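quick one, 140 residues, struct below
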Amino acid sequence: MGVSKASAEWTGGLKDGKGSMKPAHAGDVGFSLGSRFEGQPASNPEEMIGAALAGCYSMALTAALERGGLTPQSVRTSADVTLEKLADGFSITGIALTTQASVSGVDAAKFQQIAEETKKTCPVSKALAATPITLSASLG
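---
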């Protein structure tokens, strides 16, 4: 399969510094203390985790639907990653996935079954197993 690569760099102090995350085949994604904890514009590591999970889940759901003999026209997934300050420091305490799929010929119950099973089996979900992941899946 191969190894996927990414890198990150931080320059300066924590409060006045800035960082850059870079997937091997994409542009730099900037972040800072302000973008991570104060809502300032730019990204943060949690957004990158959310994007990775949303992308993996969308692809895995498409594959699962096809294995079920269905033909998805599109799958759109978003991820809300919650970062909280706990007694022992900051922690990602949950990820809420929301997916909407356009699939011909599937009933809602079967779609929900496939969607939930996919949440448990996509590779990024497995890597994030210590974090509670919820799913809201709909057809549309």
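Residues 6-37 form one domain.
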